[in-house]
Design a protein that fits this description.
The complex is a heterodimer of chains A (about 110) and B (about 120). With about 110 residues, chain A is mainly β. Chain A contains no helices and eleven strands. In chain B, the strands form two sheets. In chain B, strands 2, 4, 5, 9, 10 and 11 form a six-stranded mixed β-sheet that branches. Chain B has a five-stranded antiparallel β-sheet with strand order 1-3-8-7-6, with no helix packed on it. Chain B contains no helices and eleven strands. The chains are: A mainly beta (about 110), B mainly beta (about 120).
């Protein structure tokens, strides 16, 4: 089945460390997104990319960076992790040609920053 | 600008009772609207979506939602709750045919189903 995968699924790290979260998709979708989920706040958009050469900031991009290495791969980096970046992170994809803005989500990465 | 408000962060119902999860939206353009479900330790899964066709939308697992433009609402219902419906539910809005490609999510509602 065409899918969205995230690695790692769980990560514990220390303040100041550089962390990379990876997302791969086999759906052939052009659009990819990174969200973080915090209790009571829903999902908030960190970065999004509509194709390999298009990267856009979302509502909470400070402290994060991304790389779109290929149509199928979109990585999120925390350059110097801090405790308030502890959260559940989701990657998602969507298909421009579908015309409905429906997004397909990966299983999530639970990140803990000590 | 768009926004979504889900009324009630926690809803508790008895098994077999009606499920009603409320969602109100704000949008300056005709919206597309979505309900997603998140089971424990999983990603989000689409329940149903409204994309300007029929205002009553049927989804998976017996859920449905009605788009009411006059009330700017898109409430999610299910006639009879099942224990397996216990999960977190998110309402989301996008810019519709304006093709912004972005979803704005509500805060989420946790549904508890009591035996």
């Amino acid at each position: 089945d065409a899918d969205v995968t995230q690695t790692p699924r769980n990560r514990i790290t220390k303040t100041g460390k550089r962390i990379m979260l990876e997302c791969s998709q086999t759906k052939g979708h052009d659009r990819m997104y990174w969200y973080r989920q915090d209790p009571g706040l829903g999902l908030r958009l960190i970065y999004y990319s509509f194709d390999v050469k298009d990267i856009n900031k979302g509502e909470i991009s400070d402290g994060y960076s991304v790389s779109r290495q290929a149509q199928a791969k979109f990585s999120l980096s925390l350059e110097s992790a801090i405790p308030n970046q502890t959260a559940l992170y989701f990657c998602a994809t969507s298909d421009l040609n579908r015309g409905s803005d429906e997004q397909f989500f990966g299983p999530g990465t639970r990140l803990t920053v000590l | 600008a768009q926004s979504v408000t889900q009324l009630g962060s926690h809803v508790s119902v008895s098994e077999g009772a009606l499920v009603l999860l409320r969602c109100n939206y704000s949008s300056s353009v005709p919206p597309y609207l979505f309900w997603y479900v998140q089971y424990p330790n999983q990603g989000l899964q689409l329940l149903l979506k409204y994309t300007s066709a029929a205002t009553l939308v049927k989804g998976i697992n017996g859920f449905e939602a009605e788009f009411k433009k006059s009330e700017t609402s898109f409430h999610l219902t299910k006639p009879s709750a099942h224990m397996s419906d216990a999960a977190e539910y998110f309402c989301a809005v996008s810019g519709g045919s304006s093709n912004t490609g972005k979803l704005i999510f509500g805060q989420g509602t946790t549904l508890q189903v009591k035996p």
